[in-house]
Amino acid sequence: MVGPNAWIAVYITASARNGTLYTGVTSALWSRVQQHKLGTFEGFSKDHGCKTLVWYELHPTMPEAILREKRIKRWRRDWKLALIEAQNPDWRDLSEGWFEAPEGPLSWAQRY
Question: Taking the model in full, what pTM does it have?
Answer without folding.
Answer: 0.85
